[in-house]
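Quick one:
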Amino acid sequence: MKSTSLSLIAGAVALAAVTGFAAVTAPDGGGTTTAKAATRLPVERSSLLCPAPGLSDLAETEYTSFTPAAKSGAAAGPAGTAELLSTAVKGVAKDTAKGKDKKTGKADPDKPVVLLKEPGKPATAEVSGADAPALVGTATGRLAPGWTAQQTTTVEAGDSRGLLGVGCTVPDTDFWFPAASTAKSREDYVHLTNPDDTAAVADIELYGPEGPLKSEVGEDITVPARSGIRVLISTLTNKAEGDVTVHVTTRSGRVGAVVRTADDKSGSDWLAASTEPAGTLVLPGIPADATSVRLVAFAPGEDDADLTVKLLGKTGAISPAGHEELHVKSQMTAGVDLKALTRGEPGSLLLTPQEGKATPVVAALRVVRGKGDKQEVGYIPATGPVGAQATAADNRAKGSVLSLTAPGAAGAVKVTASAGSKGGTPVSKTYKVAAGTTLAVIPPVPAGLKGTYALTVETQSGGPVHAARTLTVPMDGIPMFTVQTLPDDRGTVEVPAAEQDLSVLDD
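Output:
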């Protein structure tokens, strides 16, 4: 093996530990290529982006940053850092949150808004007002594997009223958002955040019930370096549509993307991206008292999709009356009102292909709780399984519900409540989820809890389990809530074994 080949292999192994790249083979001494057995190692670096939280002067935002404690017996790595920093935007809110200049009210991009110091204990910060900036962050060392951050905003009144929650996103180049809207009653924004030192260029495509919505201003959108921008979706088209799928891609660079929705009657919340297009989708965590559930799906390929719709409840799967099937035409957004389909029991939605034809789709649910002027809205995108480990960072002493669903075989998960941000002792509990059901539980709370805490879910056995956490904060008779799904945190990656046989080194 040439020394240059060894250098390439070593570099590939280092890259895998940082980025998740793992498909590497090594040539043997005879010049042939031999695949080496891979092992899983913790990532060494993680990135997260949080959108600018407010459009209201009444907005109160709490950030929670958390990395799960290392498993017993795991090798200790370097201490590392985990910081969420303000982006370089103008007009930030005047407040005294950490990372602010008290005299000018402007964010100091060199001071962390949230600084996480140790795994297993959340770090929090609060920001007030409409002009608080987006945040960019990086975690290294022991703080990188499984690092997550939650942004939770409370707006008590006005068009943006609601409890708005979103998990800060990993930068990427491709995002799908079913369940957005350009209707006159809605005010939906796409928030784009650029973590890098060079500008990114993004495109925003819109698809309605009849196909693509023409737009001359959705292309070549510049997102300045280490900055966040927001784009009002209704300004990208002259058509008002109730159900719209938003597709965000980048021509250069990478961004974090999320949609903020606001409705005249039901308030506002964040709409996170659906999992990548797939033939089978799971949408977990529909609250038991949902008064309205609307399913929105989109088929991005050239083929139509015919889906079977199942509600996975406490005792098994049922078909929503009159909506057992859903036909999604290619490049067209399909929406169906499932009304109060849970009927007093929590559940999850399972979409599967009919007759074995797995046409990739994306999907999301728009969920309403309450009635009349006491309504509140939340969104549940299709999501991947918990996998090895997943975390919901912001939980309080009351108001959290954890939904676990096993769409195939039965599964078991371990749920760990972390130490509190201001004190408390971790506690764990194992839950078994029967095949084809949804189990909704009030999760464990740390003993002696002070502040907020994180919930980490780990797969123990059985088939894949999908999860979502609902956080409810009632206010003035309104059941304000937000739902965050819990896909695998990708805290570990497969790294190929590299053999060094110095006897075959040559020039």
